[in-house]
Amino acid sequence: MTKEAAPKKKRRDLSALFFVGPYMTVFFVFLVLLIIISAILSLTYFDTINAPRWLAFQNYVTLFTQDSDFMQYALPTTIKYALLIGPIGYMISFFMAWLLAQLTHKVRTVLAIILYSPSLTSGVLMSVIWKVVFSGDTRGYLNYFLLNLGFINEPVQWLQNTDFIFGIMVFVGIWSSMSVGFLAMLSGILNINKDLYEAAYVDGMKSKWQEIFYITIPSMKPQMLFGAVMALVGTFNAAGIASALSGSTPPPQMAGWLIVDHMNDYGFARYEMGYASAISVILLLIVLGFNRVATKLFGERK
Question: For 264-279, what is each residue's pLDDT tens digit?
């Protein structure tokens, strides 16, 4: 590098650092630093009043060997919920984004707002709204229609029956799954070069399915990856839905009890912050594992 080029490169580096610096500061303070603190607290007993007491890996040993609520309910329910909501919500988001991309601008904008609006509210709030539909008396919409149609003879306690709570949770989760990943997919589809479609039809492409699999999806891999990551984070971060639906914490027979529910219970009800931090670290590792799978599926090979 010549002596004249060195100062210019230094100025460019300083300019880039100036723009990236605020984000990196916020990222480090509110994410990286908090993860490090949580990992350290997970190795202690901390009741938020007394000084943390060092336990090493005892919290993790207890979590996997003695905490039956975590191993029997929270962990399997969370994974099952994520595996249902994540792929189903993801596919619905892509399908709806593709459909909206075929419409005119004004119609597409209105429908996109309608589809996106449920994700603006928390899962707990959505659960409260759906409690009216699944209410266990005759005034519940579902019971009312089923009674009038003769499918049932008496009201069903949908939100107190452990056979139905998880299914209703999944329904509510899918209803609100059109999150920011949906908008990213819509943006990705709209920004695909139209010449690619024309060239493909000239070369013999004959159907919309071929268009989707050979042009649309390969051309929007970054948006597909972003949508997959956001879907994973959203599903694993879900909490309080079963409790809001059933009106009790924990819900009947721990049905619908998620990892974040378990973490909040120990952290904010029992004030065992060290143990709650250990749960959060395990949740982080699970999310990172699923995120790696999503990266393998939708990430660029190069």
Answer: 999 999 999 999 999 9
